[in-house]
Amino acid sequence: NEDKFKKVISHAKEYGYIFQSSEIYDGLSAVYDYGQNGVELKNNIRNYWWKAMVQMHDNIVGLDAAIFMHPTTWKASGHVDAFNDPLIDNKDSKKRYRADVLIEDFAEKLNQKAQKEIEKAAKRFGDAFDEEQYKTTNPRVLGYLSKKDEILQRMARSLEKEDLADVKALIEELEIACPLSGSKNWTDVKQFNLMFGTKLGASVDSAMDLYLRPETAQGIFVNFLNVQKSGRMKIPFGIAQTGKAFRNEIVARQFIFRMREFEQMEMQFFVRPGEELKWYEEWKENRIKWHYSLGFDQKKYRFHDHEKLAHYANAAADIEFDFPFGFKELEGIHSRTDFDLKAHEKFSGKKLQFFDPELNESYVPYVIETSIGLDRMFLAIFSESLQEEILTDGSERTVLKIPAVLAPNKAAVLPLVKKDGLPELAKKIIDQLKFDFNVDYDEKDAIGRRYRRQDAAGTPFCITVDHESLTDGSVTIRHRDTMEQKRVKIDTLIDVIGKEVSV
Ligand code: ATP
């Protein structure tokens, strides 16, 4: 799986999907640029989400709020006080760690030890092996697994009570029992705010301290009444927004999974107080169906219901995806109560209420939020699409099976040879198709090599122009996934391709 992840990263670079930011200056950590294919895939994912959320719901509208917001926003939202990661430095290695991640790594090590024992036993017992039974009865496996649970629980308790001294003590105990960083020389644990600060205005005295927004949601909350009034929206209704968010993440590994500058696609759905849990269930269902609609194996997704809730939530779940490094959060669905709107009422002194004509009363609505990282969605799609196949003749091919609706180029037009008028006809075909789709052109190398290149770049269709095309007005269309080839008339191409690539 580590191999698979490395392949994903190098393939993304080689085919113009993702580059390290400022690479010629040795890069900027946890910041990435999207290349010529990446930007198309990213736009297509964003549109696919927008269509499903805004276009398909007559009670959801869009918004595009600014990245800069009044600084009081972040006091009201709780980000100034509570958007922290616990950090610890190692005095010997001079390395900085997130304390919770360090402890989770210890726990994972114990888990791996348990898994090794299980694998060994499975080999020994062969077909007769019952993994569930072994896990719950073998003392050594039980020991590792219960120790793992114990340290995770102690960490959760200490973090909740903000008992940072105990978090440090736990790390020190674990370092002795099971060395990970190879050192015992730790500093105290300190809370570190994840927001990026900046200044608005030029003069030193009057410049205002600002933050780059760490989430897009607050732009929706502060505009709740503007949208409700100008759009004459009735509850329940939603506001959707996509845009950049910024977090000074400390543990920034795992490629575009955790970035310092990333993009979110969020929707806040405003409902009557008391009806929020019904809508919460409804949105969980709706969102998982959206993921399933892309056609990947449904086993790759799972819900993780939160037991420990954030201060603003009365129910929360993640949709997790099986990334090359295991199941991790892809999207969050949160029942945020009236926490945000009430907080903005308090800090702004303005009422943020809805008059409900059916109930004949005014109230602060409750909110269900769906929040997904566009870049994480990109990584899920890209890593799941990248496949190595052994063909019937024994040869191998690398193919990027991006769902056709999301693929950067929908087709590539390939003249069989670079002469006899074939390139000219190919370009004519492109002129016909380009109003409807992105189409690539390639005339270099043997046709088989070109097919492989388009397979690896994720193009769902190759259209080959040959000498017969000049007389019979037909071309060969080859399907990326099945590699099936068919002869079709040039003027039917728009329909043949359109059927497969439209939402
Ligand atoms: P995590 O626990 O992974 O840090 P989170 O719970 O802080 O995520 P939310 O604040 O709920 O995440 O943000 C909603 C979504 O935004 C996440 O589900 C994820 O897809 C995306 N997201 C959050 N932080 C990042 C990041 N640093 N880089 C890329 N995407 C992110």
Automatic annotation (TrEMBL):
Annotated PROSITE patterns: AA_TRNA_LIGASE_II
Catalytic activity of the protein: tRNA(Gly) + glycine + ATP = glycyl-tRNA(Gly) + AMP + diphosphate
Record's keyword terms, sorted: Aminoacyl-tRNA synthetase, ATP-binding, Cytoplasm, Ligase, Nucleotide-binding, Protein biosynthesis
Domain Aminoacyl-transfer RNA synthetases class-II family profile span(s) in chain numbering: 140-415
Localization of this protein: Cytoplasm
UniProt cross-references to Gene3D superfamilies, sorted A to Z: 3.30.40.230, Anticodon-binding domain, Bira Bifunctional Protein, Domain 2
GO molecular function, one term: glycine-tRNA ligase activity
Record family assignment: Belongs to the class-II aminoacyl-tRNA synthetase family.
UniProt-recorded name of the protein: Glycine--tRNA ligase
Name of the encoding gene: glyQS
